[in-house]
Amino acid sequence: MKILAVDTTAVAASCAVVEDSKLICESFVNVKLKHSQTLMPMVRDMLKCSDLDISDIDAFAVNVGPGSFTGVRIGVSAVKGMAFFGYHGCMPEENKLGQRFIVDMHIEADLREAGRTDDLSKTINYAEVYQDVKAVVEGEPVKLLERLAEKIWERISTKYPMAKGVIITIHKPDVPIQGLLQETSVTIHRP
Predict the structure, then answer these.
(1) ∠ CA(151), CA(175), CA(178), 5° rounding?
(2) Which of its termini does the chain have fewer beta carbons within 10 Å around, N or C?
(3) Active-site residue, from 2, 80, 96, 172
(4) Any residues with CB less than 8 A from the CB of 134 and at least 6 apart, and which?
(5) Which residues contact 161 (CB under 8 A, 6 or more apart)?
């Protein structure tokens, strides 16, 4: 099992991937509490240098302290396993019959004010994110998963200016390919 661990509770931020108690890769940045700007690019670069993709990660771990900088609130809000029915694909039968698409999204935002105030208007509402992703996936068909992911990012970044970065994975479990496979998927990282 590969675990992506993130620590944003101190002045410096760090992340690492561990597999079965063995360190696979790690990254450390000391830019004096700019975690909301550095966390997602740091994770993306670390995974890229290690020839890993976010879809290779089985679990996430986040350090919650102790520490005077509870930066975990600057960390990642995640919505995983959103399932929708759409008509995307390059094959005519995909556009006619449709199929399931499963979307995982990790949004980086500065969530400190929401943590201090317990005010829903100070964060990114998961219920609204779900509806936004649903509108895109169940909306106008596109040929490529890459384009579908970009359309989701365009909507999220426009509607939620506090979103500083995102990792979106779109899974296509019912692919019309001859052969045995579990699924195809595309993951994009946007700062």
Answers:
(1) 145
(2) N
(3) 172
(4) 82, 84
(5) none
Angle between helices 126-137 and 145-159 (to 10 degrees): 140
What whole-number distance in Å separates Cα of residue 159 and Cα of residue 54? 24
Q: What is the pLDDT of residues 49-89, one digit of tens each?
A: 889 887 788 777 776 555 544 444 444 566 778 999 999 99
| Residue that has been written with the tokens 């994770």 in this structure | 43
Could you identify the residue written with the tokens 């790690």?
A: 26
Q: At 123, list the tokens.
A: 């964060």
3-state secondary structure of 139: coil
Quick check: bond before 173 cis, omega within 30? Answer: no
In sequence order, which residues have a C-beta less than 8 Å from that of residue 24 and are 6 or more positions away?
2, 16, 17, 18, 50, 52
What is the tens place of the pLDDT at every residue in 124-163?
A: 888 899 999 999 999 999 999 999 999 999 999 999 998 8
Judge whether 172 counts as a catalytic residue.
yes
Count CA within 13 A, CB hemisphere, residue 36.
13
The tokens describing 110, both together, are 């500065």
The answer to whether 101 and 83 have CB atoms below 8 angstroms apart is yes
pTM summary value:
0.63
